[in-house]
From TrEMBL:
Name the UniProt record assigns to this protein: FAD dependent oxidoreductase
FAD dependent oxidoreductase domain location: 61-412
Lineage, opening ranks: Bacteria, environmental samples
Any single Gene Ontology cellular-component annotation: cytoplasm
Pfam families: DAO (PF01266)
Organism encoding this protein: Aplysina aerophoba bacterial symbiont clone pAPKS18
Cofactor(s) of this protein: FAD
Binding site for FAD: 70, 89-90
Length: 462
């Protein structure tokens, strides 16, 4: 990356364009174009909306880099507020984690309300907790209000766990969110089996706020809604450099340039060197997902009979659900030692059959991976990078609801309104260059501790 002066303004230029998990095809201009990776979601998504590449010079009130849930949510809400908005996406809407994740609409973070209070203090905590509580509602409200076709279901989210570690977390979650008015149901082993069809887990909890969507379809639906309200979305448009220009910012991109008063960077786990330091504010982690063939009727009656989304409390967690065609979809860790490689379907198949023995013999037809962005304390970040430049990222694998919500937080910043989240200066992850070693150790040690949890006597609620 280089920085130089251009017309009296600081210019930020990207020197490296590579990101793991990218599929590139040559374009007529000679620049590589990122192709949507093969996945179950790509095979079953609602039709893509036309988002032609940028051509020539143009202007807007707000330029948004990144066409995932965060950028598209911001574009939609800003367009509804009367702003002229342009989204610049190197691939197509939903190309990154937004179109590759498990589609679970998870309520909140993995941080308890008491931990939120300890982190943000008494003045900020009520707003942050309200934001967390409302994030899942926002997703389903947008789906209903804009008629987004994304196979959405809202039976709630089930958290399932093993041993004392799970019991302590789930007990605190149900108690503390219960004090906030959420009707969380605690589940002993027998009740959990009745709900999700397995007695593999010792203990569980049902949170009615959760659900699941077809994530690529949801991203495309957000793009369609934003465009219908006047936003412009350009796919196949990589931003190469940004520099201050007059009272705003000028972006040089594939096919042309954009001038805007406000700039929003919504690149999450695919952040690169476009803005100095942004990629070092999070740790990109590869998540891997596999999907089975459609289940037969007997298996369908026994596995996830209530069609709940399930997420484990393990340190190296797995998550699973059914899609619209009754395929079993399961996600988990990617490659331990190489973030550029997604992982192995063998690992997920083994775990899936341990949880649901009836899955033995089922064919697995799809496998794919992508990057999520992790922060040291597992909470997202809202950054002020410069005058009228903001970024929202670091969703720690719970981004369907929270990244959509962060689009509204970025909208407030553009409109000059108070945000629920505190706005911070750019902070870097310590020893970021050693992140792969640290991540590998965290995963390996987590697997060992999870195995100890599995061997414990099943706990009961007190």
């Amino acid at each position: 990356m280089t920085r130089r002066m251009l017309g009296g303004a600081v210019m930020v230029r990207r020197s490296g364009l590579g990101s793991s998990g990218q599929t590139r095809l040559p374009s007529a201009s000679g620049e590589s174009v990122m192709k949507l990776p093969e996945s179950l979601w790509a095979a079953s998504a609602a039709p893509a909306i036309d988002t032609p590449p940028l051509a020539g010079e143009t202007g807007a009130d707000v330029a948004i880099v990144g066409g995932g849930f965060t950028g598209l949510s911001a574009a939609l809400h800003l367009a509804e507020a009367g702003k002229r908005v342009i989204v610049l996406e190197a691939g197509e809407p939903g190309w990154g984690a937004s179109g590759r994740n498990g589609g679970q609409v998870n309520p909140g973070w993995r941080m308890l309300p008491s931990e939120v209070a300890a982190k943000y203090g008494g003045n900020r905590t009520p707003a942050v907790l309200a934001m967390l509580d409302q994030a899942s509602d926002l997703v389903f409200d947008l789906i209903g209000r804009h008629g987004i076709d994304c196979d959405h279901e809202r039976p709630g989210l089930v958290s399932a766990g093993l041993g004392r570690h799970a019991k302590a977390f789930l007990e605190a979650w149900s108690r503390e969110w219960g004090e906030q008015g959420v009707k969380v149901e605690r589940l002993e082993r027998a009740a959990l089996k009745d709900l999700i069809g397995t007695d593999y887990y010792h203990i569980g909890m049902h949170d009615p706020r959760g659900g699941h969507v077809q994530p690529l379809s949801f991203a495309r639906g957000l793009a369609r809604a934003a465009i219908a309200r006047g936003a412009i979305v350009h796919g196949g448009t990589r931003v190469h450099s940004v520099h201050a220009h007059g009272a705003g910012w000028r972006l040089a991109a594939t096919g042309g340039e954009v001038e805007a008063e406000h700039l929003l960077l919504c690149t999450n786990g695919y952040s690169d060197r476009l803005w100095p330091g942004l990629e070092r504010s999070v740790v990109p982690v590869t998540s891997f997902i596999a999907a089975s063939e459609p289940l037969d009727e007997a298996r369908r009656r026994a596995i996830l009979p209530g069609r709940h989304a399930v997420a484990e409390t393990r340190r190296t967690l797995h998550y699973f659900r059914l899609d619209r065609d009754d395929r079993f979809v399961m996600g988990g860790r990617g490659n331990f030692t190489n973030g550029a490689e997604p992982g192995s379907v063998g690992h997920l198949r083994k775990m899936a059959t341990a949880i649901f023995p009836a899955l033995d013999g089922v064919a697995w037809t799809h496998r794919w991976g992508g990057r999520v962005a992790v922060t040291p304390d597992h909470t997202p970040r809202l950054f002020r990078l410069a005058r009228n430049v903001h970024a929202g990222l670091g969703f720690n694998g719970r981004g369907v609801a929270m990244s959509t919500m962060f689009g509204t937080q970025l909208t407030r910043l553009v409109l000059g309104e108070e945000t629920d989240m505190p706005v911070e200066s750019l902070g870097l992850v310590p020893r970021h260059g050693l992140r792969q070693f640290g991540l590998t150790w965290y995963l390996v040690s987590g697997v060992m501790r999870d195995r100890l949890d599995l061997q414990e006597t099943p706990p009961t609620w007190t």
